[in-house]
UniProtKB/TrEMBL annotation:
Gene3D superfamilies: CRISPR-associated endonuclease Cas1, N-terminal domain. This is CRISP-associated protein Cas1. It comes from the Bacteria. It comes from Insolitispirillum peregrinum.
């Protein structure tokens, strides 16, 4: 997924960072991961999403917008 947009649309999901990947969790269970270098944006469309500080920092360092 080069140049992809990651959309988090389900309530209660969380986004973390692991070894250069954005990891999506549902109730502490990893349900997916995407290489940060493949992302052009992260879109949050759910009202309740949790983001870790490391993933926020990694997105900012790479200039990936969080919308």
């Amino acid at each position: 997924m080069i140049g992809g947009v990651l959309e988090l649309a389900q309530e209660g999901r969380s986004l973390g960072l692991a070894h250069g990947f954005a990891c999506i969790y549902d109730h502490h269970t990893e349900i997916g991961r995407v290489p940060l270098d493949d992302l052009t944006a992260v879109l949050l469309t759910a009202h309740q999403i949790t983001l870790t500080k490391p993933v926020l920092s990694a997105l900012m360092e790479r200039g990936i917008p969080l919308i």
